[in-house]
Amino acid sequence: MVARYPRFLSALLMAFLAAMLSPRLVMAENLRIGLVGLDSSHCEQFTLRLNDPANPSHIPGARVVAAFPGGSPDLPESAARVAGFTATLKDKYGVQIKSSITEVCAAVDAVMILSVDGRPHLEQVREVILSKKPFFLDKPVAASLKDVVEIYRLAAEAKIPMFSASAMRWYPGVVEVATAEATPAIAAISYGPAPILPHHPDLFFYGIHATEALFTVMGTGCVEVRRTSTKTASVVTAIWQGDRIGTLHAIHALPMGSANYKLTRFGQKGVVEQKNQGDYTPMLREIVKFFQTGLPPVTPSQTLEIYGFMEAAEQSQRQGGKPVNVREVLRKAGTPDAWLIPEAPAPKS
C-alpha cells in the first residue's frame, strides 16, 4: 500500500491537470475567437475590445486569434475596406490571417461571421457548421428571407449554437425605453438610417438596426405590415397582437454610420423617448457569454420575425402599400411552425 501511494497521488495530480486543461474549462476562461469577413468596422471594434486589456471597454474571457478576410469585389462597401482592416488586425493586434474558413475554424473555439455582405453568409455558415463550432452571425443574416431561414435550419439540424442580432438591442438608451413600464407598449416609433444597397432587400442591410430597436420595445407578435415609400424615406406601419402599433421610419437619404437613431414608446403611464445611444460593448459581452454557455440571448423565432417584418415591408412596397401578413411571409420562406410566434387567440363572441 505504501509503495502504491505515491502513484495514486501522481495519478490524482494528472487527472486534476487534465481537468484544468479540458476544452470546456479552457473555452470558458480563455476563448479563442476566429473572424470570417474583414470588411466591416465591426472586425476592428470587436478585436479592440477583446484583445486590448488597456481599453476602457475591454471584455475579458476571449481573444481574437485568427481571421479569414473574405470580401465581395462587386460591393464597394466591402471591397474598399478589406485590405485596411486585414492589415490592422494582423499588425496591431497580432491576429493570424488564414487563407480559408476551414483554417480559421481549426484554430479557434468559436467563430464570428462579420462579412458586411449578406450574400455569402449561407455558404460561410455551411463551412463553419462542418467544424462544429458555435458562431455569431453579424447583420444582415443573409440577403434573402429564404436564406435566413435556411441558415437557422442548418444550424438547428447540426445542433450548432448560433444567434444574430443588431447591437442596438443592447444600447442602454434602447433598453431604458423598452423597460420603461412592465406592461407592453401601446405603440412605438423607431427611426434611423437605411441606405439602399444593391443585392439586398433595402431594409436588411442597414435598416435592421432601427427595426430591431422597434422590436426590442414592441416584442414579438407582429401580425401585419404596410409600407409607404419615396426615394428618400419609407414609413412602415405594423399591427401587433393586442391592437398595438409599431412604426418604422427608414431614412434612405442618411449614410451608413449615421448616428441618427431614436425611439419613442407610448405606454399606459406615458410617453418615453430614447435619451442615450450606445456602442458594441454590451452586445459583445452577450456574444462572449453565449460562447461560454451555448445559450443564445435571442431565439430563432425572435430574429426570424424581424426579418419577416422587413420582407413583408418589401412586398407591401411592391404592392403599392397593401397590408402583408408576416406569418404568411415566413411560412412561404420555409419557416417551421415551431419557429412561428403563436397566433393570438380569437376574441370571444
TrEMBL record:
Residues 89-159 form the Gfo/Idh/MocA-like oxidoreductase N-terminal domain. Pfam families: GFO_IDH_MocA. InterPro entries: Gfo/Idh/MocA-like_OxRdtase_N, NAD(P)-bd_dom_sf. One of its GO terms (molecular function) is nucleotide binding. This is Putative dehydrogenase.
